[in-house]
């Protein structure tokens, strides 16, 4: 699938403010980046850094006053559909060192508090079949309600309120998976077919020796996801982290398909 | 300082259980490992892995029944005393990619909830002086009470109860630091002079372009710490993570000084 | 049912300590108290007070050193079995003023956080049928595990851990009921047939213009409950509230049936 | 002080909705109610009930569509200024049964979690002097920020965020007081001199055998408070509890002084 991505963010910062951007598409085997360009009007020089885990790029900027951020990218996503349900879980001792931390609970994914629920609800299933049952549970039991959560909402909060957005659905998915001893991480992505278009959050689970994408919202096809970066939860993958106060004035994300 | 470390752990696992050990001293510039040996009676073959961040070693084992773990190491710690108070904070855009995640809140360090307290209490100070004031606050306001917390205790819990052990003191230190925009990570260590001898948890903060050790408990000298591994909070650096049920029957940690 | 109750509590208080006891059987229409006697060796004069709500008796004592509390009572419980499932909920405007507070969330019953779960899970049912479905859910989804909770465990905690004792089962029952707009209160009681014998916690729900007993644990028959007092949650009905530090040395609760 | 109160609430309910109002001034010894009138356009018949504790009045209504609630009252407040700092705490065994529950933690006042903080911070003071120090602490450490909290904010939340409105200040005051073993309850009131005029929340603490008003916000004089009702926390004293969905379209509270 050939995708064209256009992002325009219009912000305002009263004081000089450090901002960490994570909006650039990652160069990965299943998503071949053509060319892309991040440009910012209203900040000092951009300072690109990699990601902790080697996946994705982040860029520091220091801005004051009006600030317009523009990102353009074209890429080809060539991601074969995988039947998750048939994949076995990996043995724990086979997990690479960089995968191990995705077993742990994190700020917004309190996996340690869900072990009994997960065992009772999904304990009879194994590997990918268990993951699929978790995604089904989330789609069935949770209501997707825009505005129903905020930056402080954790998996426990969402589990109780039975409401959330993609961030919360992904947190629950990762939380359930970790509580079952299956590594899981959050993934930020551009999503072809997502309505309304926006930054999207999905999950990767570690099955059969590799990471596999799961979208517990079911709102966009896996084949049309262009990953930006990965992390333990929403904090790691936020598209913009403002170290101070900023005001959003306009924001537009467009993902167009050029082929098909 | 020349140290000799002797660890003996005596556990019992009813069922076959995967266990992740993190008890081996890390090879680092300021702690020169002589020789060391990890041996386990009662498990299958050990499977050493590195750490996600390249610091420290972890080892998987699969055990059933009685299990005796033994670790012996000798090393020279050559760590100059640093006057933390005089070190400046780094500019955020100068943070390397691998340091950035230590700004974020984690499962047991809810830095996002302490920003107002930290600003009100330490806001007039900068860099290392701010860090020292935080460590002083912790030593003064918190009671070190063995048995007063458990594996689920977070920084919020400890802040309210005003009680804890090294794990909780370190969580508070890292939480305050992150809430002030200074990266901080948990460090597990062997500590010469710690009474009673045990695994210890301390903190590293990122100041002036590098990591610097801080022990908010003040129970052992920085110069005698032999670091094992680092992470976002206690989960990352646990000396033993049991994926199932295990019973501790005896546990001994000895840190002897061979010189001086 | 004719019951004989014998309670012996053996405590020790290092310093002079105020203690509030709530262990005396309430005089109520469906439980006719014969004679009873509370006696304490090792305290100053007892100071009986009523209960806030007019149900039950509480007694202040001030003790230091060894303290033996003895309570003996005989009573006849004449409580007809009620088919809860057939009872309608009351209209809200018909609730008496003293019943209204049992709609609100309390310290250990966060009813406000369970509204979505309760609506999704029990929303198709009404009145007593809804209450019975809630009790069934609790009996089916929760494990009764002695020692799995403590005095700080809330309904949210128990809901996540899927474990608890009578206190937690009762908290969940009251929480679900309040989240559905049906008043519910905690009840402490002596329970004939409870094994092992102990103080018991159950629930009363307001249906069809009156309070009706429900025991979500199913561990003892409603017909053999001798109520002590009622309240919003476990704090209100604790059999002993110690304003300081006390050590339990022995504790015995016996409920014998004299007829039948 | 002679006060005239005018309240106008303009709401809309899409569906038929039960609403509990608590906006009528209580008839109490230190506030002599002249005449008052509650009238509602857009509901069925009003159903007045008392309060659980005998203080204050509540009124049920059932409304659908536009609903205008009007309340007019005139009263004389004759409340001598009391020097709180000089009042002794009461002995626990002297507390009346109806006062005892105000020692317990409640949904939004987790007194049980603040015992260590309160002991460390105020432990050297007694009775009214302790209460005054708590109120001073709150005025000094908390920022009064309209919009900074919502209906789910607890004392723990406010303590961490160091921000809140009158509800949060009152919750903290009651929480600290209970943690010190001094009964405290929330009080809703009309407050002469409050800017902007609104429903106000303050606290009563039990000292020297009686209830005494404390306003931790310091925003309005005690002498000009017209109490509405009392309770364990904000839930008990909400001026309007909507059992369903309602939209506020306009709301006006006016408190005028007729003498002086």
Describe the overall structure.
The first copy, chain A, is an alpha+beta fold and 260 residues long. Chain A has five helices and twelve strands. In chain A, strands 1, 2, 3, 4, 11 and 12 form a six-stranded antiparallel β-sheet that branches. In chain A, strand 7 (184-191) and strand 8 form a beta hairpin. In chain A, helix 2 runs antiparallel to helix 4 (166-179) and helix 3 (155-161) packs across helix 4. The longest helix of chain A has 15 residues, at 127-141. The model of chain A has no long low-confidence stretch (mean pLDDT 96). At the A-C interface, helix 1 and helix 3 of A face helix 1 and helix 3 of C.
- Largest interface, with Cβ-Cβ < 8 Å? A-B, 36 and 36 residues
Mean pLDDT of chain A: 96
Low-confidence stretches of chain A: none
Which word captures the global form of chain A? globular
| Secondary structure tally: strands of chain A | 12
The helix/strand class of chain A is alpha+beta
Note the gap between the termini of chain A. 8 Å
| Biggest sheet descriptor of chain A | 6 strands, antiparallel
What's the helix and strand layout?
The structure is a homotetramer of 260-residue chains.
Chain A: E1 2-21, E2 31-43, E3 47-50, E4 57-77, H1 115-122, H2 127-141, E5 143-144, H3 155-161, E6 163-164, H4 166-179, E7 184-191, E8 200-207, E9 210-214, E10 225-231, H5 234-237, E11 240-243, E12 247-257
Parallel strand pairs in A: 5-6
Antiparallel strand pairs in A: 1-4, 1-11, 1-12, 2-4, 3-4, 7-8, 7-10, 8-9
Helix pairs in contact in A: 2-4, 3-4
